[in-house]
Amino acid sequence: MKTTPRTGGAHPVEPKADKASVRRHNLSLVLRTVHEAGETTRASVAARVGLTRAAVSSLVEQLLERGLLVESGKTFSGQAGRPGTVLKAADTGPAGLGVEINVDYVSVCVVDLAGTDRVRVTEPLDNRTAGAAEVLERAARVAARVLGSAAARDLHPAGVRLALPGLVSAGTVHQAPNLGWNRVEADRLFAAALGGLWPGRPGAPELPVASDNEANVAALAELWFGGLGEVRSFLHLTGEIGVGGAIVVNGQLLRGAHGFAGEIGHLAVDGNGPLCRCGSHGCLEQYAGQSALLRAAGLEDGAGATAGAAGVEELARRADAGEARAVAAVEEAGRRLGLALSGAVNLLDPEAVVLGGIYPRLMPRLGPAVDGELARRVVSGLWTPAAGRLRPASASADAARGAAAVVIREVLADPLAYTG
Amino acid sequence: MKTTPRTGGAHPVEPKADKASVRRHNLSLVLRTVHEAGETTRASVAARVGLTRAAVSSLVEQLLERGLLVESGKTFSGQAGRPGTVLKAADTGPAGLGVEINVDYVSVCVVDLAGTDRVRVTEPLDNRTAGAAEVLERAARVAARVLGSAAARDLHPAGVRLALPGLVSAGTVHQAPNLGWNRVEADRLFAAALGGLWPGRPGAPELPVASDNEANVAALAELWFGGLGEVRSFLHLTGEIGVGGAIVVNGQLLRGAHGFAGEIGHLAVDGNGPLCRCGSHGCLEQYAGQSALLRAAGLEDGAGATAGAAGVEELARRADAGEARAVAAVEEAGRRLGLALSGAVNLLDPEAVVLGGIYPRLMPRLGPAVDGELARRVVSGLWTPAAGRLRPASASADAARGAAAVVIREVLADPLAYTG
């Protein structure tokens, strides 16, 4: 809900764009069209964007020269007339670096201009046991290794996007309760740490660093790379130690007045429930977060307990096997999730709700519990389990990839600005 | 969250608009600019919209001829050069008719092109005791009287907008739990009833009728006529028998995939609470709706009870006087409201929350209870009572006026289409 200036009714007819900015706009248009098509031809691009074949050819030449597009054989399929040369987004050169710092792991990836996840390192790290500067330094070390692997593949990120489990605004983590962070200047600290570890290419500018909420970029990953089909408006939850959320409306993130929208993890499902790390009581993540789930299933309660990803896998295995305590824990979390989601669905009327993080692995027991509660409580009566509006997130769409893809989108939006 | 076609990156440079459509666009631009300014001059309009003085003068002439603008004296104030003739939106001719049908009243108004509420009739009617067709017929009778008064003032609505307390989509009330309506074709029934009662002007086309959710148009009224200042993103609640809600983001209603967004009245504040008319349990309106409030205060519990507007007035009087039961009822409703709102605020991060309907009258006791709960539960920590983000709705901004103003907006958007 970022406020834009009040434009009222007064929109003068736009001034004519000058020739250079039209060309810049059209270069982006052609590059984005190829990016979205995956593989295409000059003729198809021309038909798609409404420019002449000659204009498209000229734009394509410029993109080939700059190494943003590549040619790859001929196509004879489905097109009238002579065969066209296949165009693709380059798999070298411009890339995006995504760095997800979560409570118990760091995941870093490099995505190329086609959107493909090309290098990935995920390290389990208990980030609650260190200060923010140390955690950002750890993440920078992983990032430097990934940058090295990427450079060996001739991939050169245009920028870094951090994905953080907290309220992020203008480069600062305002609050990340599960990390214990308050007012941490994440962009600055990470850039300083990375600068000391990764020299960059000679003459290349320093990598710009920006931060976002991890649920936001996970939702964008789902939108861009997931299996949502025509769905463009959805609620996205990521179950981790905390429960993150993001709202996508017509293909755009709803960010809110301060950039803090989507915090479904702190919806109160019981006003008198247990104290949450955020200071409130009975928040959803006290019932449906990873720790709560493992605790309820007896998998994180002291000596010998199994925690983290292994704990979730163990929980899923037991639930799949029908073990009573595991089933009860997952189903109870599902009902609480459904209760909170029913409020969100009544409020937002999304096309779909996507569950990511640890939830996809638990869907056989979790899904029906969530769907049942939604069917009971969504006031329109339009929520039925059969409608398939509750979906697990795609395995290929996570926060790190979404963060890296945001950088790619910036290159696609203005290819001439890329100087990596 | 209405889905729009996936446009991807492919936006060809727009084709040149033809001359007639540019003129149509600019007529609207000038008319909207005068509408928003209230009173202005040709020179100010030209400066504001970026067209030449000559072009604006020609457009203004056409709007004067069609009776959409009027001239009114000279201004000498603040402008360099010779005095200008004052321009205003016409206070005769094009108008909008708004018809709010709520559970225990019908309110009908005519708004002129300046946005002023010019004719208003509100009738207490217990609309739960009659079928939908009969209720719509009642409302049409009130509307016909209002149309008569408007015609006597030379005001001729371009259309009718119904405001209904339920889920409305494409002219049909999908569900209005507090009216007991299901799948009622409100547009068609109201148009038929009005057609038999109001002949219209000879030769004029039949009045087009469209429906909307009452909370949606109340929120638009607040946006357009309320005291929100620069706030363009807010949550709007209307406390009536039910509790309606609407979400405005950057000056636009967030409508949802089916048009059903904003249903905060059915957010569960206690999953095991009392059965709601929607079929769910523990919905907000079971704690903070008008009936719940009056019942808790002992004002609607059998013989001798005071109901409706008089009951609310009595409750407010007793709460203001510090009578314990009334104070407790209002404060408890406020806490429940705050609990539900904290979820919505965590989810949407609006700039403000506006409380309308019966709530403004109860604000002295209600406001602090709501604010307190929000301050405790909004995860960003940015909700403080001192920030003034909780606001009573303006008395001049109600659903009927908002509905009528939606019709006016349509005239402003394309003044040449008005043939009333």
UniProtKB/TrEMBL annotation, chains A, B:
<dbReference type="Pfam" id="PF00480">
    <property type="entry name" value="ROK"/>
</dbReference>
<dbReference type="InterPro" id="IPR036390">
    <property type="entry name" value="WH_DNA-bd_sf"/>
</dbReference>
<feature type="region of interest" description="Disordered">
    <location>
        <begin position="1"/>
        <end position="21"/>
    </location>
</feature>
<protein>
    <submittedName>
        <fullName>ROK family protein</fullName>
    </submittedName>
</protein>
<dbReference type="InterPro" id="IPR043129">
    <property type="entry name" value="ATPase_NBD"/>
</dbReference>
<comment type="similarity">
    <text>Belongs to the ROK (NagC/XylR) family.</text>
</comment>
<dbReference type="InterPro" id="IPR000600">
    <property type="entry name" value="ROK"/>
</dbReference>
<dbReference type="InterPro" id="IPR036388">
    <property type="entry name" value="WH-like_DNA-bd_sf"/>
</dbReference>
